[in-house]
Amino acid sequence: MAREKIIDIIVFNEEIGKLGYDLDQSKAFFQYNPDFLESGKYKNLFPFIFKRTKPAQVFTEFHQDTFQGLPPMIADSLPDTFGNIIFQEWLTARGIQKVTPLEQLAYVADRGMGALEYKPIKQLPNTSKVDIDEVISILEKVLKLKEDTSGKDLSELSLLNIFKIGTSAGGARPKILISEHIETGAIIAGDKEISDDYNHYLVKLHLDDSDGYNKEKVEYAYYLLAQEIGIDMMPSKLIENKHFATLRYDRQNGEKQHVLTVTGLTGWNFKSQPENSSYENVFKLALALKVPHKDVQQLFKRMVFNLIFKNVDDHLKNHSFIYNKETDSWNLSPAYDLTYALNPLFTFKTTSRALSINGKRTDISLKDVLIIAEEFAIKNPKGIIKDVQALTPRWSVLAAELEIPQKIKDRIYSDFDQFEY
Ligand SMILES: Nc1ncnc2c1ncn2[C@@H]1O[C@H](COP(=O)(O)OP(=O)(O)O)[C@@H](O)[C@H]1O
Ligand SMILES: [Mg+2]
C-alpha cells in the first residue's frame, strides 16, 4: 500500500496503530503498534472489533455510508449529516471534488470529538476568533435558508472557520464547537483548545425561522426536566436566549476524553439495522462494558424519560460511553440530544421510536418496560416511572418561562405518554 493510504492513530499522545484503506476494494486495514500492545496499556480502549494481536486486521463488512468502509470506532470520528454538508461546501469552494475517508480523517486530525487523533494531518491556517452571529449568517447561506444566496460571498476565511468548528460533532442539526474563557468570557474556536482555563461547549445553533419555532429552547427545557429527575447530563445553558450550549463530556479536566457512540463501539448501524436498534442491546452493551450498576439504572431512567416525554429520536448514535484511562474501564456517558424531535407543527398518525422496547416501537406498555427492568435487574422501576410521569406538568411551567409559543407547548404536552397502573 502506498504511504498516503495509511494514517496513524494517536490516543493520549501515543501512536497506537495504523489504519490503511484500499479505495478500489473498500477495505480497511488496522494494525496495532507492537510497542503499544506490549506495553499492556489501555487494554480496553477498543473493547470490541479490534483484536489485540500483532498482525494486520482486515475489515470489509463496514461499507455502508455510516462507516464508509472504516472500522466503526474510527468512523465515529468522521463528519455526520450536518458536518458533511459543511465539509462538501468547503471542498467545493476550494475546487476539490472528492476525498477518501482517510483524507477526511487527516482533516479531522487532532480536532475530532473524543480522544482519537490522526496523522499526518492536513494543515489548516490558524483562526481563533469566533463571532456566533457571523457564523450564523454564513451557515444560512451555506444551508440556503435565505432566498438571496446570490453570489454566496463566502470568503475562504469565513468558511474555513466553520469548517474547523462545525464538522467534528455528529448529528444533523447545525452546531459548532467553541471554548469560553472562564475568567474573561472570551469565545474562541473550540477545535484545538483543551486547557481547563476554558469551558468547552458544543453549541446547537438556532438559525432564525428554519423551523418556525425555537427547537433549541425546547431542548433546553428538556435538559431542565432531565436535571430535575436526576438524569446525568453535562451542564448546559442558552446563549443569547436562543442557542443551546452544552459542556463537552469529551473535554473535561483539561484533557481529552475517549468516547464512542453505541454505533461506534459495536458497528450496529443506526440508520440501516433496525434489528439491532433496541434498548435491550444498549443495556447488553452496558453490561458487556462492565459499567457500574448505577449507570444501568441511569440508562433505565433515560429510557423512561424518552418514552414519557416522547423523544423518539433515541437512536444508537444518541447514546455513548466514556472511557476512564486511569482505571481502563468504561462508563455510560452523560445523556444528550434529549428533546422533542418531531415537528409539533405537524400531526403524525404514528410515531415510531428509533430504539425498540421489548420488540415494539409504538404502543409500548408498562408491561414492556417492566420486562426490561426485570431482565437488567433495575431497582424500583415503578418508582422511577412514577417520578418521571409526575414531572410532566413541569414541562408547561418551564415552557411558559422560556416563552415557548403556547401552540408548540400544548402540542408537545398532548403527545406525552402516561402509563395506566
Ligand atoms: N455534551 C456533549 N459532549 C460531547 N459530545 C457531545 C455532547 N452532546 C452531543 N455530543 C456528540 O455530538 C453529537 C451531536 O449532538 P446531538 O445533540 O446528538 O445533535 P443532533 O441533534 O444534530 O443529533 C452526538 O451524537 C454526540 O456524539
Ligand atoms: Mg443526535
Keywords, please?
five-stranded antiparallel beta sheet; 14 helices; binds magnesium ion; 3 domains; binds adenosine-5'-diphosphate; 15 strands; alpha+beta; 421 residues
The succession of helices and strands, N to C, reads: EEEHEHHHEHHEEEHEEEEEHHHEEHHHH
User: Could you describe the largest sheet, including whether it forms a barrel?
Assistant: 5 strands, antiparallel
Coarse morphology = globular
Side-by-side strand order of the widest sheet? 4-3-2-1-5
- Termini separation: 63 Å
Strand fraction band? 15-25%
Number of helices: 14
Mean pLDDT: 92
> Which runs of at least 5 residues are low in confidence (pLDDT < 50)?
none
* Count of structural domains: 3
Instruction: Give the beta-strand count.
Output: 15
How would you describe this structure to a colleague?
This protein is an alpha+beta fold and 421 residues long. It folds into three domains: 6-119, no CATH class; 132-252, no CATH class; 258-414, no CATH class. Helices cover 33% and strands 16% of the residues. The longest helix is centred in the last third of the chain and has 16 residues, at 293-308. The model has no long low-confidence stretch (mean pLDDT 92). It binds adenosine-5'-diphosphate (ADP) and magnesium ion. Magnesium ion binds next to loops.
